[in-house]
From TrEMBL:
InterPro entries recorded: Alpha_mannosyltransferase (IPR022751)
GO molecular function: alpha-1,3-mannosyltransferase activity
Main location: membrane
Protein name, UniProt field: Uncharacterized protein
């Protein structure tokens, strides 16, 4: 059986038309999509053409630019995922960060028992208390967002959550119930159900960090309603403002959208692990400081079997990939921080430190060849591609070039038997232009979308 695999790169006005044309000319089965079209669609008075923005009042200009700037960060990911079906028929989506290096074939997710049962898989984050996020979800956000799913939600929300019962609210409830069939008890029941699913997430009362979003797999047909909620969560300013103030990045938005749809989010049962350095005094291994951070996720495609390492990701990998060959001394500094790797355990664990008893020595050879090969690919690509397209106006930096191609290369390196490489241009020797997976699965003739995004974390 064969998957038809397509790739999509999302950005927010960060790539020029020349750069997009160059990339699409070199790569097959790749779509490059500018999300600013989706963002500006919410500003009807502006339209989709930024060139006309100057004719509008300064206040409108500032608001539009603020929106675009916001989505150039982590929110680019959920907006990219939630709008993909508007542009192409897609059955399954893999959303993957630029710093992920797989140790198993990522398409095993699609064949796994959890995915076939739930139609999605989320990975876990560490235990960490942060600004009372879960309490905020339970008390405020779930009632507000759930009520929004029903007609005339404002008055029902006032009635249920704020208990503002007066003659005006009473009359509005009566009118709403009569006109569209909405009953306040339906909303209240829906809120209770979603709060119940929240409480069913293991260790939910011990943490405000729940989900990790470096890799997400989603059955788009089964969860189209989830994608609609995720899209509205980001395109409607009121939905997202308080939510993003209470969490770190975008990572919680995916499972929250699943929860708001009335479905229980499924999390991979193995907690986030780390590669780090031993503190001899305390006999604990802690993740690297900033530039050397590498996290580990374990996974098994079959229930009740021993998991193995699924992928590495983190700033430590980004640091090594971005270094030129003239900075091998800095590479050695990063490697010196990666002494031990923690073994898998069920559910979450607190922070990024683990007891030495849970850890084993980390074999650099398990990942060093991949890092070295990716650096070589990056060097060859940047040296072979016209500079006017890559660096014009800072349009596509060397780092973003790596973002676009790293996933392709890591698949080839780690799984050469499953993928084949073709080139459209001999002058760019290592550009991956077509990738097909020949895997046994139940998804015959399915379409799989693999998504990238270009983000600006500064």
């Amino acid at each position: 059986l064969r998957y038809d695999i397509r790739y999509e790169i999302c950005h927010v006005r960060e790539l020029s038309e020349k750069t997009v044309s160059m990339l699409e000319a070199q790569l097959e089965n790749v779509t490059i999509r500018d999300l600013s079209v989706n963002i500006l669609s919410e500003w009807n008075q502006v339209g989709n053409d930024l060139q006309q923005l100057r004719q509008y009042p300064r206040e409108v200009q500032d608001q539009v630019r603020s929106e675009l700037s916001f989505f150039r960060g982590f929110p680019c990911k959920p907006l990219c995922l939630s709008t993909v079906t508007q542009h192409a028929h897609t059955d399954h989506v893999l959303l993957i960060d630029d710093d992920v290096i797989f140790q198993q074939n990522p398409f095993h997710l699609l064949m796994s028992e959890p995915y076939q049962q739930h139609g999605h898989i989320f990975f876990r984050d560490q235990l960490n208390i942060f600004q009372g996020f879960i309490d905020f979800l339970n008390r405020t956000y779930i009632p507000y967002a759930t009520a929004r799913l029903f007609p005339s939600y404002i008055y029902i929300y006032m009635y249920i959550y704020n208990n503002k019962f007066n003659i005006f609210t009473f009359l509005m409830i009566m009118i709403i119930t009569y006109s569209d069939g909405t009953n306040a008890s339906e909303i209240e029941l829906a809120i209770k159900q979603r709060r119940h699913w929240l409480q069913q997430i293991p260790q939910i009362l011990q943490t405000d960090w729940v989900g990790e979003s470096a890799t997400i797999v989603m059955n788009m047909g089964q969860h189209r309603d989830v994608m609609n909620i995720l899209r509205d969560m980001h395109q409607k300013t009121r939905w997202r403002r308080n939510l993003y103030e209470k969490m770190v990045g975008d990572k919680e938005t995916f499972w929250i959208s699943m929860l708001l749809s009335g479905k229980r989010p499924y999390f991979n049962p193995y907690g986030l692990q780390i590669i780090g350095k031993l503190n001899p005094k305390d006999q604990v291994v802690c993740g690297g400081n900033g530039y050397a951070t590498v996290i580990v996720q374990y996974f098994t495609p079959t229930y009740n079997t021993t998991p193995s390492i699924f992928y590495f990701n983190g700033r430590g990998i980004e640091t090594m990939l971005r270094l030129s060959f003239a900075h091998n001394d800095t590479m050695d500094t990063v490697w010196s921080e990666l002494q031990y790797i923690s073994q898998h355990v069920a559910w979450h664990q607190k922070s990024v430190c683990r007891s030495i008893q849970q850890c084993i020595a980390f074999d650099h050879d398990s990942i060093a060849p991949t890092i070295q090969t990716l650096r070589t690919y990056k060097h060859i690509f940047t040296m072979s591609t016209p500079k006017m397209l890559i660096y014009k106006n800072g349009d596509l930096s060397e780092n973003n070039t790596m973002i676009i191609f790293q996933f392709f290369f890591s698949l080839i390196i780690n799984h050469p038997n499953n993928f084949r490489l073709k080139c459209k241009n001999d002058s760019i020797e290592f550009i991956l232009t077509k990738l097909e997976a020949e895997l046994f699965s139940s998804f015959e003739n399915s379409y799989v979308q693999v998504m990238f995004f270009i983000k600006n974390e500064t």
